[in-house]
Amino acid sequence: MTAPTDPTDQTDQFDQTAPDRLIEELRATVQMKDHLLQMVSHEMRTPLVSITNFASTMLRAWDVVPDDDKREYMEIILQQSTRLSRLVNDLLAVARLEAGRLRTVTERVELREVAQETVTEIATGGADISISVADDAAVTADRDHVKQILVNYVTNALKYGRGPIEIASEADGDDVRLWVEDHGDGVSEEFRPHLFEKFSQQEAAHEKVGTGLGLSIVQGLALAQHGSAWYEHADDGARFGVTIPRG
């Protein structure tokens, strides 16, 4: 006859393993925090240095700096300020997604209009970005979230891909597929399963440091719209897309 299991043995076993698990979880959390701080500080440093240097130059030598140079400096300041703003928006999105406190305001979103706003905001320095989105293409979603998805995708294409870049869409039953396509090397087959994970960056892209948050944010925002984020590889480029219900 088998002797009954002593419940104290289970308790002792639990007590022995629980601290180890907690230590590992705390260690992972600290490592994630350190990684995030390192990436964010690097991403913030470059635009802050540019803004400070060009603003200081104009303040010191306003009367002698040619008007054309002043305009160029102001454009650089605006570009770098926009870059910082995108970083702050990403960090806020991560915090809200992690805490489960992402606020979603659902409305009819005209996709071509959002795409045009995205290009106007990002397409500096002669970036080759075209829009192939029908005038009547629309979804029921949070407009700010859809724009942030496009901003992150286009920024990713400019940073890691090659032009020309295209924003396009197509109807797919009750959904709309919206994507950003570039003509770079795309994502390696080995890395694709990790593409939308937090802090994930393909090895070849490490020379262009980023936070590694953009695509994980895209996935979180897509899920908040009852949609999904996806990637498609092609011989002549890559598509990063999102599928959102028409509503």
Provide structural commentary.
The chain has 247 residues and is α+β, with helices and mostly antiparallel strands. The protein has two domains: 8-99, Orthogonal Bundle (Helix Hairpins); 107-245, Histidine kinase-like ATPase, C-terminal domain (Heat Shock Protein 90, 2-Layer Sandwich). 52% of the residues lie in helices and 18% in strands. The protein has helices spanning 7-60, 67-99, 111-122, 143-160, 214-224, and strands spanning 107-110, 129-132, 138-141, 165-172, 175-182, 228-234, 237-245. The protein has a five-stranded mixed β-sheet with strand order 2-4-5-7-6. The chain has a two-stranded antiparallel sheet with strand order 1-3. Helix 1 (7-60) packs antiparallel against helix 2 (67-99), helix 2 packs across helix 5 and helix 3 crosses helix 4.
